[in-house]
Design goal:
Blueprint (H helix, E strand, L loop, with lengths): L13 H15 L5 H25 L1
Helix pairs in contact: 1-2
Amino acid sequence: MSPHSDVPGSVRSATELNERIRSLWLRAGGSLSAQERAEYELLVVEWAAAIRGEVVTAA
């Protein structure tokens, strides 16, 4: 990830994370480099945690 990435455990919404994931794929033209894949994987893990948090909050 870039040096400007948020600190692990930061709180971003699932919507924001989804937008970042989509943007990453668009910038990459549908084929991720090793660095982009690592960023993608971190974003997906954070997105999944955000989704879980939103579901728990809604319940």
